[in-house]
Amino acid sequence: MKFVSIKKFYLLFLSILISCSSDKDVYESPQVTNIVEENNIIEQSISQEVVSVQDNTLNSNSTESFTFTPIGSLSNKPLSIFYHIPDGDIKNLPILFSFHGASRNASSYRNYWIEMANENNFMVFAPEFDDINYEGGDKYNLANIFEDGDNPSIDTYNSPDTWTISIIDQIFDYIVNEIQGNQTSYNAWGHSAGAQFLHRFILYLPNSKLNVGISSNAGWYTVPDSSFDFPYGLFNSQLNDSTLTDAFSKKLYVHLGENDNNPNSSGLRHNDVVDLQGLNRYDRGNFFYQKSLTKAESINAIFNWIKIEVPEIDHSASLMALDALKYIIEE
Question: pLDDT tens across 169-195, in order?
Answer without folding.
Answer: 999 999 999 999 999 999 999 999 999
